[in-house]
From TrEMBL:
<dbReference type="InterPro" id="IPR002139">
    <property type="entry name" value="Ribo/fructo_kinase"/>
</dbReference>
<keyword id="KW-0067">ATP-binding</keyword>
<comment type="similarity">
    <text>Belongs to the carbohydrate kinase PfkB family. Ribokinase subfamily.</text>
</comment>
<keyword id="KW-0119">Carbohydrate metabolism</keyword>
<keyword id="KW-0460">Magnesium</keyword>
<protein>
    <recommendedName>
        <fullName>Ribokinase</fullName>
        <ecNumber>2.7.1.15</ecNumber>
    </recommendedName>
</protein>
<feature type="binding site">
    <location>
        <position position="267"/>
    </location>
    <ligand>
        <name>ATP</name>
    </ligand>
</feature>
<feature type="binding site">
    <location>
        <begin position="38"/>
        <end position="42"/>
    </location>
    <ligand>
        <name>substrate</name>
    </ligand>
</feature>
<keyword id="KW-0547">Nucleotide-binding</keyword>
<comment type="subunit">
    <text>Homodimer.</text>
</comment>
<dbReference type="GO" id="GO:0004747">
    <property type="term" value="F:ribokinase activity"/>
</dbReference>
<feature type="binding site">
    <location>
        <begin position="210"/>
        <end position="215"/>
    </location>
    <ligand>
        <name>ATP</name>
    </ligand>
</feature>
<comment type="similarity">
    <text>Belongs to the carbohydrate kinase pfkB family.</text>
</comment>
<feature type="binding site">
    <location>
        <position position="273"/>
    </location>
    <ligand>
        <name>K(+)</name>
    </ligand>
</feature>
<keyword id="KW-0418">Kinase</keyword>
<feature type="binding site">
    <location>
        <position position="182"/>
    </location>
    <ligand>
        <name>ATP</name>
    </ligand>
</feature>
<feature type="binding site">
    <location>
        <position position="239"/>
    </location>
    <ligand>
        <name>K(+)</name>
    </ligand>
</feature>
Amino acid sequence: MKIAVVGSINMDMTVTAERIPLKGETLRGDNVRLIPGGKGANQAVAMARLGAEVEMFGCVGDDDNGRKLLDNLKESGVKTDHIHVLKGVPTGIALITVGENDNTIVVVPGANGKADKTYAESICRELEGYDMVVFQHEIPLETVHYLIKWCYEKGIPTVLNPAPAAKVPTDIVEMVSYLTPNEHEARLIFGEETKTEEMLKKYPEKLVITQGSEGVVTCMKSGQILHVPARKSSVVDTTGAGDTLNGAFSVRICQGDDIEQALLYANTAAGLSTEKFGAQSGMPLAEEVEKELEEK
């Protein structure tokens, strides 16, 4: 089982506070930490921690953050052979505020914005050797759409986690194997007036909508709406929970699980990830998820 992730590699500057500040408000923070992140890198690390063979594709700058992020990926068991290191371009950074069991995030793309169509064309031959390719929206959408079309033509399964929120063309929705938006992202893609059940029934066992503390929903090919509730967790930090879910879901689909089994596993992994601080540092190992599932 080999999975490729084409996406963002960021350094997360995370500040904790008693709550998220209101517009125009200044609050005193508790501390600041620099933590490896980026939706793409997070999902790759989640997969590696769950036992998959994973390679990360993307761009970093030739700065201290870039070097630290490459080292972190390697230490996490993620291959980095085709990550481009760009001279004179800063590595992407995310500014995260954590408070009241929630977070706000502002992303500055930096080198992630240079993962363009030229870069996409340069990695196509490498992607042919993978069982699945996973994408997000923190690199140029032109790159994401180009590679999804390319994978579709080659018969390579794909997962698109359309975050941050952006429109997804209908042809891309049709070509991708799995689409995993949250509720806000789903409304942007399918229309504010479209009911969740209507969206799901149009794309059975393709569209998976995450609902935060409510869990995740999809539609089975039988037409039945499947709701997998969230695991009850002692929440410390929700940063990276969605990335853990996407990574775990991709791994289990690749291993041959049906969509219900994969979502149960993914939801359990995501719940466990919220009980520790930091996106990647909170991600569970395969044995932790399996133990949790055995105890249910």
